[in-house]
From TrEMBL:
PANTHER family from the UniProt entry: KELCH REPEAT PROTEIN (AFU_ORTHOLOGUE AFUA_5G12780)
Source organism: Tanacetum coccineum
The keyword Electron transport is assigned to this record: no
Any Pfam family matching the protein: Kelch_KLHDC2_KLHL20_DRC7
GTP-binding is among the record's keywords: no
UniProt xrefs under Gene3D superfamilies: Kelch-type beta propeller
High-level lineage: Eukaryota, Viridiplantae, Streptophyta, Embryophyta, Tracheophyta
InterPro entries: Kelch-typ_b-propeller, Kelch_1
Name of the featured protein: Nitrile-specifier protein 5
């Protein structure tokens, strides 16, 4: 039997050297090997900061700016990044005119070259604040804020065939939403919580084999409704870290009420557990949302990297943490 425990000594705030992105939110980060790549985001609400690609060495804890070639994406917020092998995929977001975008770019970390893979009528419609997940071959895109409202569609980009596939739409019980958790676990694509006009607490999965959506009932120490949290899938578990539990009356221009909690969902038993993760210590990020986050490995251990985000005081943050759950 596999047991899960989470000791705060496995939580670590990482020092930072070199020229990094600085404080920001609504940005994205992904890990390739022993480096993390960060892109996009805002310091002032709704104003994209830049389109530099920042590289953080997880061994030396040093930032640098990649010297890139090719089809560099323009600045954007509410963007997502994911990686398969040595290639990074960047999708969507919102530009400086507040227009939703739908370009898919790849970045080859070996050659430092950007390539525009799809745009316009090819692939998912324009959106921001959506979610992505990956398996060995596909990049999954779900939901987000579209031109005409919040979305609940699921797409997959096949990195071998270089084609998009749209999956069947779910029923009305899976409302369009922004900032949900998304994870590829056990051959299924899981949608966890999000903001659908209000913070919601439902859990669904899509089974590519049957082409069916299923809403599941979870038990245990269930998190309250929330969105724009950091999330990672490790084995059969989906971790949910922080997030917004009460939106601001000012919308995106203000800070809602954030939480610091970490919960984990066992996708086999459908039982939630509140994780004892050392909250209140120096190696804990505290309450925040709208962070950049990525699953990956550091020192050979799988975990969750969390960078920056928005604080309860509406200040953008620039710190980095790495969580390592221990599975026995």
């Amino acid at each position: 039997m596999m047991y899960l425990y989470f000791n705060r000594t496995f939580n670590l705030q990482l020092n930072q050297n070199g020229t990094g992105p600085g404080a920001r939110s609504s940005h994205a980060i992904t890990i390739v090997g022993d480096k993390a790549y960060a892109f996009g985001g805002e310091f002032k609400p709704r104003v994209p900061v830049d389109n530099s690609l920042y590289v953080f060495d997880l061994n030396t804890l040093t930032w640098s700016i990649a010297e890139v070639t090719g089809d560099t994406p323009p600045p954007r917020v509410g963007v997502t990044m994911a990686s398969i092998g040595e290639t990074i995929y960047v999708f969507g977001g919102r530009d400086a005119t507040h227009a939703e975008l739908n370009e898919l770019y790849s970045f080859d970390t070996c050659t430092n070259k950007w390539t525009l893979l799809s745009s316009g009528d090819t692939g998912p419609e324009n959106r921001s604040y959506h979610s992505v997940a990956t398996d060995e071959r596909r990049v999954y895109v779900f939901g987000g804020c579209g031109v005409a409202g919040r979305l609940n569609d699921l797409w997959a980009y096949d990195v071998v065939d270089k084609t998009w596939a749209k999956y069947p739409l779910p029923g009305d019980n899976l409302k369009g939403r922004g900032g949900p958790g998304l994870g590829a676990v056990g051959g299924k694509i899981w949608v966890v919580y999000g903001f659908a006009g209000m913070e919601v607490d439902d859990v669904h999965f899509f089974d590519p084999d049957t082409q069916k959506w299923v809403q599941v009932e979870t038990t245990g120490e269930k998190p309250t409704p929330r969105s724009v949290f950091s999330t990672v899938a490790v084995g059969k578990y989906i971790f949910v870290c922080g997030g917004e539990i009460d939106p601001s009356d000012l919308g995106h221009m203000g800070a809602g009420r954030f939480t610091h909690e970490v919960y984990v969902l066992d996708t086999e038993t459908l039982v939630w557990k509140l994780v004892e993760d050392g909250s209140g210590g120096v190696d804990h990020p505290g309450p925040r949302g709208w962070c950049a986050f990525s699953g990956g490995k550091r020192d050979g251990k799988e975990g969750l990297l969390v960078y920056g985000g928005n604080s309860p005081s509406n200040d953008r943050l620039d710190d980095i943490y790495f969580f390592t759950p221990c599975l026995d």
